[in-house]
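queue> pop job 88
queue> type: inverse folding (structure -> sequence)
queue> payload:
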């Protein structure tokens, strides 16, 4: 309830109180002086009337405020749903009719869309570069044919037009909220960088909604709250009429009402005390059709809501704690320190895109001679991916006694395919390093191609990948192939997840394998040319990640970024 509304109600209470005082009976004093003496009935009438006023105003204010929040929220939800449902249609109708100078057919369809939503007052179609193609406010009667209109002068609006997901402008404060969906389809409020921010609350009014379409167009919806304001004004008038009637009824039946007020108030007080002690199942049993009855219903509903809210809060805290534990478990899977392996210089890191990632790597010593090195990438990220990573890591450890990377992968695949969901699988590049022979061999299970830097020729090549992701078919033995990697001193191989070549940059381009290979080669050459600077696996990894992050800029990270650089000493 805003300050203007509170002031109006206070003035209304004062006027009614004065009217009540005027109808109170008056007696003359024995001295002959003219004085007002209120009788018990008069006092009861005044007290009851004022109590009724206060009770009704409080109840009406509470319900009005709740209704205002509800309607404001409904307008936001309906407008957002309207935008989601019509954005593609508007762009399609534009390409079909307006782009071909069919304004009449286009305008007829747009007007029919307006009739489906009373909350959207204006629709503007904008091209990805900021050009305004249609504006329902200025293009009502005919197709626009003047100079090119553009929103490029408004940098904030242009950012929203070119954003990869819908955005909302909160009226009054100018806050921009972007709406991003996770792999499960749940929508989160984020900023332009993809970080979660404070969500839109029930009292927030939305000024505009921008809905991008296929990174080609964007539809801007202007939201109107005229219907809400009219309904609130009408409700205020109804509250005033109801209040006047209640005062008249209170004056006529003051004594009878007075007797019925005490017990309900005691019941509400007792109920409040029970609720304050956490007894949310307590209900106030007041059978009345007046304001006290409304208040008791609101009270009981409040108790039910508090109970549900408390349950939700407890559940949320439990889920947050479990996610924290899951993150700690997953972090424990990734080696904190890379082991010292004779003949190799290794550097590796993982940057998860979510709280729980889907990438992993490890170094497992089979015996005194052989060490298994692997890097895996589960489909997606989040809790499901983290669980599959944990299972896969445990299976590899369990089967390490087989002593052969081929047998390890075949057995891990069989169990993952039998026990995991059909849409969950993990790609993996697994290597075996024989310290005695100083030989490296690998198997690719549908993973990205390994980059091989040849020191002698100063060239970077991609090793054959092949294979199939683990968990897709029951038996993958015929699809896996063990391949040697010829490495001499100074040679390097780079294992990575698809989060690197598929990373998006600020110019809506992917990092790509061409740039990846070039950066690797430039990093080696750059360090080799600096006197006194050693070309190590760590320096190469850091140079690659530095270039990757410079390329991405402010673009949100869409997938886990994992890289391992292995140099032959």
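queue> result:
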């Amino acid at each position: 309830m805003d300050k203007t509304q509170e002031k109006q109600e206070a003035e209304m209470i004062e006027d009614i109180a004065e009217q009540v005082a005027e109808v109170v009976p008056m007696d003359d004093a024995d001295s002959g002086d003219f004085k007002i003496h209120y009788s018990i009935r008069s006092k009861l009438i005044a007290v009851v009337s004022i109590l009724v006023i206060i009770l009704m105003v409080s109840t009406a204010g509470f319900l009005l405020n709740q209704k205002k929040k509800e309607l404001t929220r409904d307008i936001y939800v309906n407008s957002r749903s309207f935008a989601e449902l019509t954005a593609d249609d508007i762009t399609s109708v534009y390409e079909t009719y307006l782009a071909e100078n069919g304004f009449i057919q286009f305008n007829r369809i747009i007007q029919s869309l307006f009739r489906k939503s009373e909350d959207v007052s204006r629709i503007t179609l904008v091209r990805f570069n900021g050009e305004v193609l249609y504006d329902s406010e200025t293009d009502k009667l005919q197709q626009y044919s003047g100079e090119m209109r553009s929103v490029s002068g408004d940098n904030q609006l242009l950012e929203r037009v070119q954003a990869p997901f819908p955005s909302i402008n909160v009226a009054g404060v100018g806050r921009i909220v972007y709406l991003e969906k996770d792999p499960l389809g749940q929508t989160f409020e984020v900023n332009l960088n993809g970080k979660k921010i404070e969500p839109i609350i029930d009292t927030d009014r939305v000024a505009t909604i921008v809905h991008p379409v296929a990174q080609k167009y964007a539809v801007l919806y202007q939201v109107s709250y005229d219907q809400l304001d009219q309904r609130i004004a009408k409700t205020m008038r109804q509250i005033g009429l109801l209040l006047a009637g209640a005062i008249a009824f209170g004056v006529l039946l003051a004594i009878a009402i007075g007797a019925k007020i005490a017990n309900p108030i005691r019941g509400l007080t007792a109920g409040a005390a029970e609720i304050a002690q956490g007894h949310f199942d307590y209900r106030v049993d007041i059978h009345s059709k007046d304001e006290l009855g409304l208040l008791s219903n609101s009270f009981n509903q409040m108790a039910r809501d508090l109970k549900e809210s408390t349950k939700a809060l407890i559940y949320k805290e439990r889920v947050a704690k479990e996610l924290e534990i899951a993150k700690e478990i997953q972090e424990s899977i990734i080696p904190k320190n890379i082991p010292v392996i004779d003949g190799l210089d290794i550097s590796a890191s993982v940057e998860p895109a979510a709280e729980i990632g889907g990438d992993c790597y490890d170094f497992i010593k089979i015996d005194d001679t052989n060490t298994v090195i692997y890097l895996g990438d589960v489909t997606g990220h989040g809790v499901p991916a983290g669980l599959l990573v944990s299972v896969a890591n445990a299976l590899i450890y369990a089967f390490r006694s087989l002593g052969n990377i081929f047998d390890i992968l075949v057995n891990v695949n069989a169990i993952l395919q039998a026990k995991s969901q059909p849409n969950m699988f993990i790609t993996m590049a697994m290597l075996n390093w024989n310290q005695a022979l100083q030989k490296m061999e690998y198997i690719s299970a549908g993973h990205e191609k390994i980059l091989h830097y040849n020191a002698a020729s100063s060239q970077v090549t991609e090793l054959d990948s092949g294979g199939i992701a683990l968990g897709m078919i029951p038996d993958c033995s015929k699809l896996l192939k063990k391949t040697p990697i010829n490495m001499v001193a100074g040679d390097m191989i780079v294992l990575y997840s698809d989060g690197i070549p598929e990373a998006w940059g600020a110019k809506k381009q992917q990092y790509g394998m061409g740039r990846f290979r070039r950066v690797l080669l430039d990093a080696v050459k750059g360090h080799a040319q600096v006197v006194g600077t050693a070309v190590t696996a760590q320096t190469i990894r850091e140079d690659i990640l530095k270039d990757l992050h410079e390329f991405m800029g402010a673009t949100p990270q869409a997938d886990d970024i994992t890289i391992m650089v292995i140099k032959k000493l």
